[in-house]
Automatic annotation (TrEMBL):
Keyword check for ATP-binding: no
Protein origin, superkingdom: Bacteria
GO MF annotation list: transferase activity
Pfam families membership: ApbE
UniProt enzyme class: transferase
Keywords from the named record: FAD, Flavoprotein, Magnesium, Metal-binding, Transferase
Protein name: FAD:protein FMN transferase
InterPro entries in UniProt: ApbE (IPR024932), ApbE-like_sf (IPR003374)
Enzyme Commission number(s): 2.7.1.180
Cofactor(s), by name: Mg(2+)
Reaction catalysed by this enzyme: L-threonyl-[protein] + FAD = FMN-L-threonyl-[protein] + AMP + H(+)
Amino acid sequence: MTFPGSARTETVMGIPMNVDIRTALPRRELDPMIDNAFAWLRWVERTFSHTDEDGQIARLNDGRTIEQIPELVEVLHRCDELSEATDGWFDARINGRIDVSGYIKGWALERLSRALSNAGAVDHRISAGGDVRVRGSALPGRPWRIGIRDPRTGAVRRQVFANDLGVATTGGTRVVDPRTGTPQRALGSVTVLGPDLSTADAFATAMYAMGPVRARLFAHELASAEPYESLLITRAGRTMSTPGFAAYATPAALAG
């Protein structure tokens, strides 16, 4: 099937990132738009790296002079807010070092999505690893469909349908308990849906670090106070979700 618009995948932050624009715009507008999208993502990669010695986070960790970048202040402030909101389970400061990797990918995609909409590309999907931001329609009259995979088998366990949504999925041993520094091993993955991808990403990271008991309680408390719904998949394959999650998703076998 031929789709309107244009799509491209490039490796940024060490993972494939995809920008898929479905708005029917002229090629003379689409090509520069996608070029600028990846230029933005690479700027974020350079600026917020904690491993690249020239990155602003690395410089900050080493006590070196940093550039006065408004986005850097914004990200650090928001990470502090989310640390407080999760009682420290999401924390960008561990062992005296700053690492915003649990937030910055979702933030970059969220900011890019807004920029694309403002530029006229109102129908798009941006994805990077477990983070997906969609707006508009995949095709006229059809919402976007996002698959949530089983962390053990890779099979799609749920299909999420949406026209304007951030979907953040966190899993793997890279997420640790910020209080002990040890990897969390009881959950397979946590998916959070909501209006802001960067916030959903931080909440998913926090819940994954909590483990299944605390995460389930936090997910229900979050859904009662904020427009964020969650799906937890344990390493044994059991799923737990907040009631509102069903409004977006169906089991893969029923999705057609």
